[in-house]
Amino acid sequence: MKTKVTKFTPYFEWVSHYHQSQYRVGITDFAQQTLGEIVYLELPQTGSMVKKDEPCGFVESKKSVVDILAPLSGVIVAENRSLLVNPEKINQSPYEDGWLFTVQVDDSQQWNSLLESEPHLENGKGIQND
After folding, report:
1. Which part of the chain is the Lipoyl-binding domain (predicted)?
2. Nearest partner of 123 among 11, 4, 2, judged by Cα
3. What is the CB-side half-sphere exposure of residue 111 using CA atoms within 13 A?
4. For residues 70 and 57, is the Cβ–Cβ distance under 8 A?
5. Between the CA atoms of 26, 30, 31 and 35, what dihedral angle is there, to the nearest 10 degrees?
């Protein structure tokens, strides 16, 4: 099933409605360009619960490490395990092959709280590297 990018978080993640109450999550092209070459990541495991705006994994590049914050509360129903072997897919194809995980939500109204456009296009701010 091909994803369609439609909403964003303030944390430079994209979220697309994938199937029924499932949403696919990844980082934006702007985020991967800012981070540079991604060398490692940790994803939430299938079956785990995630809570909106709380860390559920991280992405490590040659420049920095940034948390992945859950854009929606729910249960992880899929993780892109191919990224564990080939994290560079995030740099090569952030909106297709570089997706991170799929979350199933009970409350689809959470979708309405997401941004309509990428945050750097709205406020001119970049990613904050720690």
Report:
1. 22-104
2. 11
3. 18
4. no
5. 140
pLDDT tens digits, 37-49: 999 999 999 999 9
From residue 127, give the alpha-carbon distance in Å to each of 12, 34, 81, 123. Answer: 8, 7, 25, 12
What is the pLDDT at residue 3? 53
- Computed on alpha carbons and rounded to an integer, the radius of gyration of the chain in Å comes to 13
In the three-class reduction of DSSP (H, G, I as helix; E, B as strand; rest coil), residue 101 is classed as strand
CA gap 120, 105 in Å, rounded: 27
What CATH number labels 7-106?
2.40.50.100
Domain range list for the chain = 7-106
Amino acid 42: pLDDT: 98
- pLDDT value, residue 7: 93
Within the chain, which residues score under 50 in pLDDT? 1-2, 123-130
Q: What was the pLDDT predicted at 15?
A: 96
Q: Which long-range contacts (CB under 8 A, 24 or more apart) does 109-114 make?
A: 110/52, 110/72, 110/73, 111/7, 111/15, 111/17, 111/23, 111/72, 114/7, 114/8, 114/9, 114/15, 114/71
